[in-house]
Design goal:
Rossmann fold, six-stranded parallel beta sheet, alpha/beta, about 290 residues, three-stranded parallel beta sheet, 11 strands, about 15% strand
Amino acid sequence: MILIDGKKTAEEIRKEISVEAKRIFEKRGSRPHLAAILVGHDGGSETYVAHKVKDCQEVGFDSTLVRFEDNVSEDELLEKIRELNINPLIDGIIVQLPLPKHINEQKVIESIDFRKDVDGFHPVNVGRMVIGLPAYISATPQGIVELLKRYRITTAGKTCVVVGRSNIVGRPLSILLSMKGEPGDCTVIVCHSRTPNIEHFTLQADILVAALGKPKFIKANMVKQGAVVIDVGTTRVPEASAKNGWKLTGDVDFNEVASKCSYITPVPGGVGPMTRVGLLYNTLLAASKKIYQ
């Protein structure tokens, strides 16, 4: 069994991004610039956005953090997005999700200029990705594909089972892995909460991706011997011995499953760091105008 080290791989990519960021600065006199909007004070969102700001600093990007209280109006939020859209100094824009219930998330996503949509959620970027055109690809699927590439895990002709059909991970990843090329050329099966006898499908997987948000859902009896297992889950579960009272747990029961795998990602330290670096990569693309002129 080989442990897929997302932390180490992400660090290698950060160094590559840092070099490209310096070239952009030398060419245009300004650094790649990411603007993040955070509404409210959700603990997970606060932590994630703080990591994004720190990541930008470490690779030589500029960043702007715009904060709103939970009671911000939808119109006020949309107006701020319009300001960032027309600001020539801002390359990428993200709005941290989830948003308060009185705000229409899809409306907010579609209000972001697709040329600055470095989360890859705008319908223009999703549509371009689906038909194989250059686009900003959402960070987690992009990070998973990059891990498969850098670990030289063969995907062509393999059966890939994706457990989870979210628009952020499961659905886009299933499309990426079915496309022509390497990584790609998989036969992809998508399972979800309404799939009966789910182990019937997971046992067929040469590559199994767990992205459903249920801690330790994937057990050893659901995994084929020699499978590649990618665990996307990051659920906080109570842990009395931990300093902060919780620990991150994946969708895969690692202790049960690892011995059956050829490759497996840990939680933490697997897909998570690649998600963070994926956002930096998209911001770099936006600054370099490699997708949209």
